Amino acid sequence: MRVVLVVAHPDPDSFSHAIAAAALAALSGAGHEVTVLDLYEEEFRPAMSLDERLAYHGDRPILDPTVERHARIVDDAEAFVFVYPTWWSTMPAILKGWLERVLVPGVGFVFDEHQRVRPGLTHVRRIVGISTYGAPRWYVHAMHDNGRRTLMRALRLNTGFSTRRAWLGLYGMDNCTAEDRAEFLARVEQRMRSL
Amino acid sequence: MKAYVVYCHPDPDSFTAALRDRAVSALENAGHSVRVADLYADGFDPAMSRQERLEHKAPPAPPPDIARYCTDLQWCDALVFVYPTWWSGQPAMLTGWLDRVLRRGVAWELPDGASRIEARLTNVRRLVTITSHGSSKLINLLEGETGRKVVGRAVRVLCNRFARTTWIAMYNVDRSTDADREAFLDRVDRKMHALWPAPTNRAAARKW
Questions:
Q1: Which of A29, A65, A193, B170 is the most exposed place for a label (fewest CB within 10 A)?
Q2: pLDDT tens, A39-93?
Q3: ipTM entry
């Protein structure tokens, strides 16, 4: 499968990057073709600009070469893997901005004649989210885990209901041990091999 | 009452800008003092930097580009967010504002030995969201209403424990008429007037 691996963490030495590296190795080892989009390394601009907003209701309103490159990669994708730390119950701004600026009409979805949104990512067959949480699992649930819902529900409405989803979370990261982390990396690798 | 309006939309001629104007004028007419943050006009940088991330558990004083937001957050009684809902939640610009401005020492504290953060925005007693959705209420329910939960839960736990949340939302904006939008602006006006208890002074109450 052609896999797009999207990573959103400002620190290249972070555990999120360790997860991304483990996922990349496991996916490549299983024979998948992986493209990594490290949003911080690419200095991706999160905020949609005024010009982009004004062009939004047109056909494929992309004005930025970086966004165009990412959109081409998305056009060919068969699976999405997202790796990010959860902040304030949701994804970092840079990843939210990636959804807003890359998955525009003509890429992520299309507007029908009644201005209703219709899926545009029907070629995507898998969505995997991998996130780290400072808080324990019960607290994450109490806060509604909004980043997970954005990817597992809002994004999936645009890929179609036959797309399979998987979620891997490392909870209580503020108090976890080196063994917990190693075990989590092993889980990530195993899950990626069986994608 | 002191109200802090955090507004986020790239287009100064947008419907969201009209919502902000109506909310601000309603609050001012009701005798409240209002401060407004316009994140796009300020050129706010929503991406938390590596440095900020590494320092987030023991941050220095807020850097100049966010110091004013921190001061105003600690000043207000009511925090009002005005934004368009994109991908079921806040635009990245506002998400990043939350990531960067809700800092330790400003919005929360972690006392020695504690396992959970403590709220520091106990001055905030009203938490209001004014937003528009292109799609229907049904679609937003299927998507999980993430923007609503980010404010109503993740931000709410940092505020006063008796803080009341108010959700003022318009759906189906992509297919709305001028009359629909006008009616929603009037609703914003009414809700903003009713935000704080009526004055105890009878003459003022009658006028209201």
A1: A65
A2: 999 999 999 999 999 999 888 999 999 999 999 999 999 999 999 999 999 999 9
A3: 0.96
Residue A48 sits at the chain B interface (C-beta within 8 Å)? yes
Backbone angles phi, psi at B60, to 5 degrees: -75, -175
Contact present, B149 and A88 (Cβ < 8 Å): no
pLDDT tens figures, A92-103: 999 999 999 999
Give the model confidence (pLDDT) of A113-159 as tens digits. Answer: 887 889 999 999 999 999 999 999 999 999 999 999 999 999 999 99
Separation between Cα atoms, residue A160 and residue B135, nearest integer Å:
17
| CATH number of the domain enclosing B47 | 3.40.50.360
Q: Report chain B's mean pLDDT, rounded to a whole number.
A: 93
Which residues in chain A have their CB less than 8 angstroms from residue B98's CB?
87-88
Number of domains in chain B: 1
CATH of A2-193, one of 3.40.50.150, 3.40.30.10, 3.50.50.100, 3.40.50.360: 3.40.50.360
Q: Where are the domains of chain A?
A: 2-193
**For chain A, how long is the longest CA-to-CA vector?**
54
B48, B110, B146, best to mutate vs chain A, most A CBs in 10 Å:
B146
Q: CA-CA-CA-CA torsion for A86, A88, A92, A93, nearest 10 degrees?
A: 160
